[in-house]
Amino acid sequence: MKLTILGCSGSIPGPDAPASGYLVESGGTRILLDLGNGTLGTLQRFVDPFTPDALLLSHLHPDHCADFGALTVLRRYHPAPPYDPAERKLPVHAPAEAPERLAALYAPNAAERAGADLSDVFEFAPVPESPLRLGPFEITAFPVHHVCPSWGFRIAAEGRVLAYTADTGPCEELTELARDADVLLAEASWPDSPERPDGLHLSGKQAAELANRASARRLLLTHLQPWCDDAEILAEAREHTTVPTELVTTAARYAV
């Protein structure tokens, strides 16, 4: 299983990093986890953007789904696509309100917003309540604690496990999500300090403590906000765990 970082900036894009988005590949099957601002551009460095087999959206904040509008333009108007997008619709597993919310995001003008429909090139389904099979992948969604409905994803293939927290504050579900994961891709949006909002995101310390509780084998920190000190967050995480820990960067690739 291979993980490619399409973007890793939290809340907004950074000067050198799109927002959150990830490509996961195994055995010829490709899935996208989130598609925040700028991630469709990074995707094109590595694969034809028509080739992913599914898109999973953890939640509907712009830094995790804003490039869905650009993906809609691509699938509707590319002059020479490799297949007919209307015949081979992209499966999108997302929060229940995604069809309406994403149609409004894409709508080219206010008059077309009401009743807009993207089902010509996408096939929407709610975030699955039971494990989902996609090619060699088994994907289990865990509801996590955020200011809107949000899910983390546990992705198993080839005898390996990638756990992705998405956006979350501390919650009990995270431990099972990350249990014995080969790679824990955890948000660490800010340093652990009294000034940070409580329960909205993880700090570097909290991501490290999660890796410890879950016995994860490797910790990758993502969703670092441009106004925070990345080095401080990394040092904080390493202080609280012996699990190998590093910051991800845009376009980095990892074997899970």
TrEMBL record:
<dbReference type="InterPro" id="IPR001279">
    <property type="entry name" value="Metallo-B-lactamas"/>
</dbReference>
<dbReference type="InterPro" id="IPR036866">
    <property type="entry name" value="RibonucZ/Hydroxyglut_hydro"/>
</dbReference>
<dbReference type="Pfam" id="PF12706">
    <property type="entry name" value="Lactamase_B_2"/>
</dbReference>
<protein>
    <submittedName>
        <fullName>Ribonuclease BN, tRNA processing enzyme</fullName>
    </submittedName>
</protein>
<feature type="domain" description="Metallo-beta-lactamase">
    <location>
        <begin position="18"/>
        <end position="205"/>
    </location>
</feature>
<dbReference type="GO" id="GO:0042781">
    <property type="term" value="F:3'-tRNA processing endoribonuclease activity"/>
</dbReference>
